[in-house]
Amino acid sequence: MSPLLRRTKKKAGERVVTLIGKPGCHLCDDARAVIEGVCAETGAAWEEKDITQDEELHRAYWEQIPVVLVDGEQHTFWRVDAGRLRRELRA
């Protein structure tokens, strides 16, 4: 395999966690608390996107919120397991 095609391992500080949710969602509130804690611990960045403000995200995820992406790829939905997220960010 070409060295250019190999995925390079990212350090936790280079990882980005995205929480996709909506206002008034108690599962989103729970997910946010887990993500904030794990990202603070690992040094990963995190962001939040609101499906009520983005039609494409709404179409893709409205039945699954909260949805968590790590580096743009779906990691989980509904419930966020801190240990699993921590392992993913350190992988």
From TrEMBL:
Record InterPro entries: Glutaredoxin-like, Glutaredoxin-like_YDR286C, Thioredoxin-like_sf
SUPFAM superfamilies hit by this protein: Thioredoxin-like
Protein's UniProt name: Glutaredoxin family protein
Segments passing through the bilayer: none
Organism: Streptomyces formicae
